[in-house]
Amino acid sequence: MSGGAEIDFAAEGLLDDLEGEAREARRELLERLSDEGVSLEELRDAVATGHLTVLPVERAIAGDGPRYSAREIAERSGLDLDLALAFRAALGIPYGDDLDEQVGTEDDLDAARRMKAILDAGFPVEEMLRNARVVGMATARVAEANRELVVRNLASPGDNERDLADRLVGTAEFLLPMGTEFLEYAFQANLLELIKRDVIGAADLAAGDIGGVVERTVCFADLVEFTSLGEEIAPEELGAVVGHFEELATSIIAPPVRLVKTIGDAVMLVSAEAEPLVAQSLDLVAAAAAEGDQFPVLRAGIATGPTLPQAGDYYGRSVNLASRVTGIARPGSVLVDTATREAAGEVGLTYSFAGERRLKGIDARQKLFRVRRESERREVLGRPDE
After folding, report:
1. Which of 5, 95, 350, 374 ranks highest by number of CB atoms within 10 Å?
2. What is the pLDDT of residue 332?
3. Angle at the Cα of 121 (from 115 to 124), degrees rounded to 5?
4. Which residues pair with 334 in a beta bridge?
5. Confidence at residue 28, expressed as pLDDT on a 0 to 100 scale
6. β partners of residue 263
7. Got the DSSP string for 125-140?
8. Which candidate, 47, 46, 103, places its Cα nearest to that of 73?
9. Cα–Cα dist 92/261, whole Å
């Protein structure tokens, strides 16, 4: 007799508040999971937390292979236990407090072995953990986006738990291999694009100064009055605004300019060349304006100077300055510092003095300029633009 048939799920209270087809569908799902080895306690918890429908997907992704504790994974992989724990935490999926609980899979063991091999090849622990944090944050966002895609498009009014669970499992089994291949493609394509832009000169090699501080032009562009907009419209509408903003940015930004990240109502752009970044920032602001009154106005601030690339992000005075300049730019404008004006030049661009400002956290007063395309030039008399 199967495990599911031995359990009276109604007596256990797992069918409460359900009638008819929905009740029978849950019973069938509970029996199936019990037959597959899920304990009654796990089933109780899944029902209580609303996790029952997605429990089959969890099992499909994790697989039914051997399970290892954190301690066993460290021993089998050769990683120091503290390092194995730090690696998982950096990925955003830490082990629990019980290091002897068998929650790890063969994939977890393989990942630990790969980490050990990379460290044995001579890569520093600190940098590998930093890299793991970046990978963890990036893939968590990818996973969340795909989860939303599946759940929103597969669930329909009137679904029962059994049918939706079957549909989710089938979709996960179909999409997971494709998604993995797509991630591999995106990673390789982006890595290739970054390598194409790398410049390593003989002087850099002689000095051993590779991967350090570089000269970069940095831009932040944000949606004006986004916070107040959030008080006026529903969260779903606000999410649509952010999504369309990201769509505009990804459709306009192109090499050598790089879209580093989105930060809610803002995007961060970086380029080794100032002129393309200035031009694309103007395009982005213009594209937002072309959306009409239904879309917030954009503004942008740009600065140029020494910048430290680290773990997929950028740090330094030019980053801070660009952020501060954005904060004082007028809606619909692009404001740049002196270094950016000099680096971008005046071919096709025109600048108007926007005043000399002292900005929070910046040690010296900054001369700022509003930049426009030459075709948009207009006379400004008697006062600064900003």
Report:
1. 95
2. 95
3. 70
4. 300
5. 93
6. 266
7. HHHHHHHHHHHHHHHH
8. 103
9. 19
The C-alpha atoms of residue 135 and residue 90 are separated, in whole angstroms, by 9
Distance of alpha carbon 112 from alpha carbon 131, whole angstroms? 15
Question: In 3D, which of 336, 246, 346, 254 has the Cα closest to residue 299?
Answer: 336
**Burial degree of 26 (CB within 10 A; 0-12, 13-18, 19+):** buried
pLDDT band at 382 (very low <50, low <70, confident <90, very high): very low
pLDDT > 50? residue 386: no
> Which CATH code for domain 206-376?
3.30.70.1230
Backbone angles phi, psi at 331, to 5 degrees: -55, 135
**pLDDT tens-digit series, residues 339-381:** 999 999 999 999 999 999 888 878 788 999 999 998 876 444 4
- In the numeric block, which tokens belong to residue 358? 């002292």
Q: Which residues lie closer than 8 Å to 288 by C-beta, 6 or more apart?
A: 223, 245, 248, 295, 296, 297, 298
CA atoms within 13 A on the CB side of 274: 23
Q: Is the bond preceding residue 256 a cis peptide, omega within 30 degrees? A: yes
| pLDDT of 370 | 96
Q: Which tokens sit at 16? A: 């409460």
Question: pTM for this one?
Answer: 0.63
Residues 6+ apart with CB under 8 A from 164: 53, 154, 155
Structure tokens belonging to residue 76? 């089998």
Question: What number is the average pLDDT over the span 148-165?
Answer: 81
Contacts of 65 (CB under 8 A, 6+ apart): 105, 106
What three-state secondary structure class fits 346? coil
Residue 239 pLDDT: 80
User: What is the identity of the amino acid at 112?
Assistant: A
Distances (CA, A) of 140 to 38, 61, 200, 377: 27, 15, 33, 45
DSSP-derived 3-state class of residue 121: coil
> What contacts 192, CB < 8 A, 6 or more positions away?
none
In the block, which residue shows the tokens 């929905």?
22
Q: What is the DSSP letter of 104?
A: B
Q: What is the pLDDT of residue 377?
A: 62
CA distance 228 to 197: 40
Segments making up each domain of the chain, as ranges: 4-50, 70-197, 206-376
Higher per-residue pLDDT: 17 or 304: 304
